[in-house]
Amino acid sequence: MQTLKKIQKKKRTHVPSRMNMLFFIVFILFSVLILRLGIIQIVNGEDYKKEVERTEDVTVNTSVPRGEIFDRNGTLIVGNKPLNAITYARPKTIAQRDMLKLAEKLSEYVDMDKKEMNLVTLRDRKDYWILKNPQKAANLVTRSEMKNLDNTALYHKQLSRIAKEDLYSIHGKELKNVAIFREMLNGYPLFPHVIKNHNVSPKEYAEVSENLSSLPGINTTTDWERVYPFKAVNENGVLESILGTISSSKEGLPKELLDYYLAHEYSRNDRIGKSYLEYEYEDVLQGHKQKMKNITGKDGGVLHSEIIRPGRRGYDLMLSIDVELQKKVEKILQNMLIKKRPGHRFLDRAFVTMMNPNTGEILAMAGKQLIRGQNGHLKLTDAAFGNLTTSYSMGSVVKGATLLAGYQTGALKPGEVLVDQPLKFRGTKVKKSWVDEGMGPINDLMALKRSSNVYMFRTAMKLGGQMDYIPDGHLRINKMAAIRTLRKQFAEFGLGVKTGIDLPGEQAGFGGMNPGEPGKVLDYAIGQYDTYTPLQIAQYMSVIANGGYRIQPHIAKEIHYPGSRENELGSVAKEMETKILNRVEMKPRWIERIKEGLRKVTSEAGGTAYGYFDSRFKVAGKTGTAQGLYDGPAAGTYWKRNVLPPMTWNTTFAGYAPFNHPEVVISVVIPWAYEGEQKDPHLNLLVGNKALKAYYDLKKQRVQQKQIHPL
């Protein structure tokens, strides 16, 4: 009995010990758990929080309309047209089979344009067929082949073995499915990609909107496209080539500039300026994009979106161009080319630049070109960009710069008399003026008025160190010294150097190799050697018109905040200031003397442009003709036959008005205008007079209408 009690007592003492041990173990486990939770929350909590945000919160930028472009009077030249659009933002992870099912469902509500259907490639059909026929695709490859192929090689093997009849059986509704699926694949994860934005009918828009809950990633929104009020169907728009183009949402960012644009908050499918004004002022026109945060689920789909930063369309650009003047000048060139082309087989283009010589503002920049289409017929195209991207021998328009170079170097004295007579040098062809027998003793003003070549030749000789002319003697000039001096002096006026205009692609012209023959140096003095752009000629004449300042031409006048109403300019954000590039090293009285010579060219009998300009305009200027081998588009056909192209004449004019207070400069360049002694050698003057008449008619009209800024 006593023993039994001892045993029971012993058992009672063991139970609490085991319980204590159990409690202790539980305590230890809870302590470890609490410690672990503390480490996770306190030590690593921020990292885990960032990881959650990175995977669930994704920020995207959505496109906004570009800024609009207006002329100097507030007339809309480039605007935006709103479009109903259907977009797709695909999840970060989604199987292609699921995307195809979504495309098939969207196809029930949306039709695709014929243009979009035509974009479907053979590869698109193959991808679609494999997704729709997985078992048939698997049977295209044997089991033994599968053992030796990875997934990529297997896929390409299947692509190569799909029967043509299977591919071409895909048509009608199935082909529409492929077109929609193709667009879905082209988008980037979580970024809205346009599936359709042209000709979206109200029914399509409404039905898709009503079924968004069953179309994950699909959305209905408003898109935009560029519109050109001055462009008719199948015709060139006003200033079309200078305005430039933008990429489509399907083109997206150019690969060569992808990193640059992505670093500036662009999306891969953004539309950007591709050329000229749209490209040059991309940062102004692009706009302030809307920034959204997409909350994504585990499957990568968007659960919720919130706007972080509202968007704003781009700033508007006001040009210095007067669109009414631009239209009139383009019409003048168009009519001239169409009317004069018969009998002038190489005449295919013409250029006019009009600018304010005191501010550098471009008032009109027109160019037209005839090109031969696939049907062999000539078609008129806009070539305004040719004013800054193409260069030609300009002829005698540069003679003002030649005389000023003579004054500046001391080689020529203002008023100096030289004898205009045929110059005969040993080993060199006779150098003479257009008057075969010569003009006799003439001074610098008469040399400009009557466009004496010999006077300029004699000036170039002096620049090269040969002060006197000896009949039948040697031409002993220092060729290198003469050509370097002339080029240096010409460059001060903008000849042979870029003007600095606010447009991409400007050319500096062609500076030929140093002449092998001394006679070529003399030709340089009359504009027969180096080539210049029509815009350079306008800048050069502006330097003379404004008294010696080379001013940077610009086509943008102001940047404006977006207006509160459609097609309305807002307040001015920035005004483009006049920029002086350099002051020519000429005494003011020298420039005034040249201006007097240019006045005589147009205003006095015997002047090469006398009687061609309305006297009311008070025009001063210089004519030019430059002869050379034809080097236009058709020249290659001659060289292929080892035949020299024929000699043709470029006809040019550069001037300003009124001569007593210059407010407008004009350059007219008509390359390959005629051959030999054909008629119409004065097309330059006819075009110049009509263009200036258009300027003054508009000015008078606006003064009568009491407009604040007539031009």
UniProtKB/TrEMBL annotation:
Its EC number is 3.4.16.4. Keywords: Cell membrane, Cell shape, Cell wall biogenesis/degradation, Membrane, Peptidoglycan synthesis, Transmembrane, Transmembrane helix. Gene3D superfamilies: DD-peptidase/beta-lactamase superfamily, Penicillin-binding protein 2a (Domain 2), Penicillin-binding protein, N-terminal non-catalytic domain, head sub-domain. It holds the Pfam family PBP_dimer. InterPro entries: Beta-lactam/transpept, Beta-lactam/transpept-like, PBP_dimer, PBP_dimer_sf, PCN-bd_Tpept. Residues 63-302 form the Penicillin-binding protein dimerisation domain. Pathway: Cell wall biogenesis; peptidoglycan biosynthesis. It is a single-pass membrane protein. It catalyses: Preferential cleavage: (Ac)2-L-Lys-D-Ala-|-D-Ala. Also transpeptidation of peptidyl-alanyl moieties that are N-acyl substituents of D-alanine. The chain crosses the membrane at residues 21-43. It comes from the Bacteria. It is found in: Cell membrane; Membrane. Residues 351-676 form the Penicillin-binding protein transpeptidase domain. Its main location: membrane. Belongs to the transpeptidase family. This is serine-type D-Ala-D-Ala carboxypeptidase. The lineage of its organism: Bacteria, Bacillati, Bacillota, Bacilli, Bacillales.
